[in-house]
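Record pair follows.
FIRST:
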Amino acid sequence: MYEGSRKKQRGQKRKLEKMFSYIDCFEPCWNQDVLYEHFHVPSDPFIERAKTSNQVKRSFYQKWLSTTKKFIEEKPQDLKFCKIVALLSIPNLWSSEIIIFFDKSYYESFFERHDDYQKWILIENESFEKRQSFNIDLCEMGIRQFINDEGDIFTNELWFYGEIVEFIS
């Protein structure tokens, strides 16, 4: 085995603090002239590496979801339609997003993924929040995603938090 692969990933705390400072700068535009607005995980993809500690990942989950909760609490009441949803992509955390939907039909169709390329199936009787021992007061919904890329099937979990629709499989 290559000796370098056993090395500890250095600077996790520093990288996490830098990421959090970027997340703290997220500011929704509340622009109803678009279908949605979204925020991606800032910084490099260190957060999803195998050598990133579970404690660091748990801190990220908590920050990502508390930012979503803050957006929900700050949402202007005079918007025609607005739903705010956090997406945690497991194990591809760098693909996680916070999405603000301004169009009802786009919001509802977003959760309908059943075609030859992509299929979503509801994860029942499981909770990522409980599995990871973090606590946030938001609705949770888990989806198992299957992507067919020219015959190669890729699968991952998508965990949605916030103002989510009831998923119908």
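SECOND:
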Amino acid sequence: MTIQKYILQEYFELYMSDVEHLAPASVKKYVSAISKCSDFLRQKTMIKDTLYEVADITQLKNLRDILLTDEEFYALNSRGNHMYSAGFNKYIKFAEGENFEAINDAIAPLYKPFPKTKTPTLTSTAKWTRNHILRQQVIKLADYKCEINPAHQSFIAENTQKPYMEGHHAIPMKYQEHFSYSLDVYANIICLCPICHRKIHYGLKNDRHEMMNQLYEQNSSKLIKSGIEISKTEFANLDI
């Protein structure tokens, strides 16, 4: 069975090797653990292919809880010195963006091109993949600060106990057909306060144009590293 390699899988592996600087053997151990957990869940028809397809933290945690209470998996995990649960927990911490606020420029090796993929739907067409986990990670990377103006204030969200922020695709996913590589990547997701997020969609044309110019100046180098090529004029005139 050939399983598609997901963006979260590549980000996880790159994060461990290039940001955490884990030894190749350690990275391989964690990747193998996720593979084994995926095999177990797939056999029980709880996922389609792999844990990396799951785009919601709550669902990931629910799957972990199911595994840890399954007698067959418990026995397997015990024989493996709990390496499978350790790998799952490691991945969840990554998906949650643990310590992402302190990473800053260390995330640079993760700006790279990724193939664009579609998510199957119940209709005859498929939609371009969007991953909620990536948006939440980017918000943590920005340390819950608006990328238009870090001084912008927002209310405190109950689930994070941090200022409420929103993830915004700088180049909307509806333009994916026009690009060779995925737009659902760190480089193309921006952390915005709720007011700026609404403003960039519904504000005055001149205000939106100014915001787009600013975002281009701040993020164009990341986009280029991720294989996303677009001129400043094209970017500023996108239909957001």
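COMMENT: Strands lie at 118-119, 127-128, 166-169, 189-192.
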